Structure formats: C-alpha cells, structure tokens
Amino acid sequence: MKLITGVVKDYAWGSTDSIPTLLHTEPTGEPQAEYWLGAHLAGPAVVEGDGTLDSWLADHPEALGASSRDHFGDRLPYLLKILAAEQPLSLQAHPSREQAEAGFAAENEAGIPLGSHQRTYADDWPKPEMIVALTEMEALCGFRDPRETADLFDRIGPIPGLEQVIGPLTQRSGDAGLAETFLDVLSLDDGRVHLVNEVVAAAVNHVGDEGEVGQFARTAVELDAFHPSSPGILAALLMNRIQLQPGEAIFLPAGNMHAYLRGTGVEIMANSDNVLRGGLTSKRIDVDALVQVVDFTAGPVEVLRAEPESDGLLRFRTPAPEFALWQLDTHADHSVMLPALGSARILLVVAGHAAVATVGETIELVQGKAVFVPAGEQVQVDGNCSAFLAAAGV
Questions:
Q1: Spatial separation of the C-alpha atoms in residues 177 and 387, rounded to whole Å
Q2: Which residues does 222 contact at the CB level (< 8 Å), separation at least 6?
Q3: Which has the higher per-residue pLDDT, 283 or 15?
Q4: Distance of alpha carbon 203 from alpha carbon 135, whole angstroms
Q5: CB of 279 within 8 A of CB of 91?
Q6: How far is CA 220 from the centre of its chain?
Q7: Domain chopping of the chain, boundaries
Q8: Are 31 and 86 in contact (CB under 8 A)?
Q9: In whole numbers, what is the pLDDT of the chain averaged over residues?
Q10: CATH 2.60.120.10 fits 312-391, yes or no
Q11: Is residue 93 within 8 Å of residue 290, measured between CB atoms?
Q12: Interior CA angle at 304 toward 136 and 140, to 5°?
C-alpha cells in the first residue's frame, strides 16, 4: 500500500476553486480542471518515497494482478480523476477498441507523427468513461429524438433557411437523419453560419420558459457565451441535456457524443488519449472519423446509481473491462474490506477521515488523499468517510 499524490491539469474550462477545496490547497487564481490519479504518461501520480506510479509499476508489474496483465499487459488500464468544469467542454466521442486499433495503425502507416494536429488517434486503446457527480452536474449526452428536436427548433421561432439544415430530422428516419444533420452542421460554410446567430437570437426570447423549450433555449444562449457563432451550438442542440445530482452517474461507451457543461465529479476511464471532437472547440474536427465512430441512435440517457454490495460498500456497474468503481460510505462502528483483491486499486477519500490498514501498516487518509493498493493486498477501511475505489474491470 502506497500513499500517492495526483497531478493537477489546468485546462481553461476548469474551476478555480473546486479542486483546491477538495485537496485543501490554496487556489492559484487559475483554472484547475482535473486531478489525475493513475499511471498515465502525461501525468502519473507520485508515489511517496518511490518516484512516479508508472515507474514503480514498471519495476513491480505483479502489483497489477494476473487477470489485468493477461488482458492489458503491464499497464494500469484505468485513470481515476476529479473533474471540475466551470465552462463547457468540447463535444466529443471515443472509439471502440477495434476502431482505435485500426485508426492508430492507419495513421502510423501514413506516417503522421504522434502529437501532430493532423492525428486523430493518439493510441490504440478505447476510452469508455463514467462520471459520478459530487456536486450538481450538467452535461450533454447522446441524441434526443430527432422529431422532438425539430419541434423545439420550431417552438423558439421560425428561422428562414434553417429547414435546409435540420430538414433531415423529420424527412429521414432514425439514425440517418440525425447523422446527416449533425455532420452538415459541422460543415456549415460562411454562407450559412449566420443561422447559428439567428437561432441564438431566437432562443434569447425563450430562456425564461419552463420545460424543454426553456432548457433548449438556455443551452443555445449559454454555449454562445463561450463559443460565439460556433456551428457546434447547433450540433449541441441535437443532444440530450441532463442534470445529475450528487451520487448519480452516467456511463459513456464507445461512440457516445457528450460534453460536460459544469460541475464537479469523480471520473474513471480507460487509460487512453483517444478523443474525437465534434464541435465547441478550436481543435481539429475529423468529420470522416466521426462518421465511423459516433453512435447516432437517439434515446434518453440512463442515469446510474450505485448498487449496495455490503454495508458501506456500493458499486457502479458498467460493461467496461478496463475499470470498475465502488463508493465507500463508512461509519465508526463498521469496517469495510476493499473488494477486487486480484487487481491494482486506487482509493480516494472525498469527505471525512479513513484509517486504511493492511498487515503491519495503517495509513490515515483525510479528504483529498489517496493510496495505491497492489493486487493481492487485503485492506480494511475504518472511520467516517466517503471514498471511491477504482480497479480493473476484469
């Protein structure tokens, strides 16, 4: 068992105070968007007295556990994060393992250097994700029924010329109409980009409306404040907007188009950098790759809640083999034994105090502190705390 310290990422969309509050550090005045706990090469956690976690695991691969090594090699397959958004992130989706392997190999064969702005695939891994809200969170996730979307555009007011763009929502059935509209929006030329401003201007008149129309209008106006005149605003308006309460979660499989809008949560994902952006960004949008990767199936978002496994231990279930996530809510008169004995684990305390004990050793953890637990090490947690445990999903 090793005490570890994560790495703060200062992306522009981050909150200035959420992560410092959690970690009990002084705010810098600059945005702090993510706090990484893992062995990702772009920000490996620091092991107390032993360098970085990736280096430590290279010397102690047995700590990953036999099943994880059989499936993923000598690599920690997940990355645990705190994500704190003050501004909307870009619209994005992630490939499946097969898509990532094929795309990465094709770009290598084409001689596109790693790190190039012309590159879409940074590695050959998928990147399923799940986020659990610590505060109220808002996000865009998947696509709304296309006929409902067409109706919402109609209800904020007639906009001359817009029908040429959103017509396929009602003229074509199912996925095809959504795909055509989404991809057309991302390709708006100078002669049609004025439609974005006209939609936003119409939406201003409805931001105070109740129900779906008001939410639809507020989405347009809020996104325009950060990305004025961006075609990505129209793309975002095709999507479901959801609000998560603390403790609620969403799972984002391969192909799911999504964007976090605001709020703080615990995020876990496969240890990959593969992101295909689909709007609300100045970075490259690979439309051809989006056609292959994005799932345009419309439908409501499934909100996940943890399922009790034992007293004080709850699990967020997903199909991802790269990761598993539990929540611990301990109290003074009951101990919790950490599950996933055969996997390398990371335990992060987000509230309260925990005494984390293994044979001959006890580490005291307060809010914002974390430990790495090697496979095979039995650990007991006592105290009053709320904590999250990450492990491989196999």
A1: 43
A2: 88, 261
A3: 15
A4: 27
A5: yes
A6: 22
A7: 2-140+244-276, 145-236, 312-391
A8: yes
A9: 96
A10: yes
A11: yes
A12: 55
Q: Reduce the DSSP state of residue 260 to 3 states and report it.
A: strand
| Whether 36 contacts 54, CB under 8 Å | no
In whole angstroms, how far apart are CA 102 and each of 70, 96, 98, 276?
Answer: 21, 10, 6, 15
Per-residue pLDDT tens digits for 141-192: 999 999 999 999 999 989 999 999 999 999 998 789 999 999 999 888 888 8
Q: Tell me the catalytic residues.
A: 277
Helices marked H in 136-230 — which ranges?
A: 146-155, 163-166, 168-171, 174-186, 194-204, 211-226
How confident is the model at residue 22, as a pLDDT?
97
Q: Which residues contact 249 (CB under 8 A, 6 or more apart)?
A: 130, 131, 132, 133, 303, 304, 305, 306, 316
Could you say which architecture CATH assigns to the domain 2-140+244-276? Sandwich (2.60)
- Asked whether 301 and 174 are in contact (CB, 8 A), the reply is no
Cβ atoms of 142 and 278 within 8 Å: the answer is no
| Contacts of residue 98, Cβ cutoff 8 Å, sequence gap at least 6 | none
Instruction: Report residue 373 as tokens.
Output: 């637990």
Nearest by Cα to 298 from 178, 152, 138, 129 = 178
Q: Enter the pTM of the model.
A: 0.96
- What's residue 342's pLDDT? 98
Query: DSSP 3-state helix, strand, coil percentages of the chain (rounded to 5)?
Result: 25, 30, 40
* pLDDT of res. 259: 98
pLDDT at 332: 74
